[in-house]
Amino acid sequence: MYGCEAWTVSKQTQKKLEATEMWFLRRMLRISWTAKKTNDTVLEEAHTARLLISKIRKRQATFFGHVMRREGLENLVTTGMLEGKRSRGKQREKHIEGLTDWLKAGKSLEAIEATKDRKKWRTMIANAVKQGT
């Protein structure tokens, strides 16, 4: 989890992380692959629900708020508002787009404005963590 604040978590990456987390849980609970147990029953036995993704997203959101409150190069890079032309083809998913989807903030500008008020930003993060991924 070291450095996960800077990851861009796409849907494909999220699926891989969830599969890895499920593999970890099965190994910790000593559930063999021949035992026909669904992922839901494994999660119920572990008394947990997709903790890895929610922890990563929470750390990303807190780091994003920290960067947005500062005025510097990190702010420009994170928002993607650099000068120059974009490359051809389908554009890569930006860090802020993944966070706004998770926070259900609507537009990225709403999320950027919410970072200025710490209480509002923390409540947005807390609500997103409660709702899950």
Structural commentary:
It is a single chain. The chain has 133 residues and is mainly α. The chain folds into two domains: 10-49; 54-81 and 94-133, no CATH class. It is 62% helix and 0% strand. It has seven helices and no strands. The chain has helices at 11-28, 39-46, 51-69, 73-79, 95-103, 108-114, 118-131. Helix 3 runs antiparallel to helix 7. The chain is elongated and about 55 Å long. The protein starts with 10 loop residues before the first helix and ends with a helix. The mean pLDDT is 82. Keywords: Endonuclease, Hydrolase, Nuclease.
* Largest sheet report: none
Look at the helices and sheets and give the structural class.
mainly alpha
Count the DSSP helices.
7
User: What value does the Rg take, in angstroms?
Assistant: 18 Å
Shape: elongated
| Binned strand content | under 5%
Our measurement of the CA-to-CA distance between the termini, rounded to an integer number of angstroms, reads 17 Å
| Uncertain runs | none
Question: Would you tell me the overall average pLDDT?
Answer: 82
Query: What is the total number of structural domains?
Result: 2
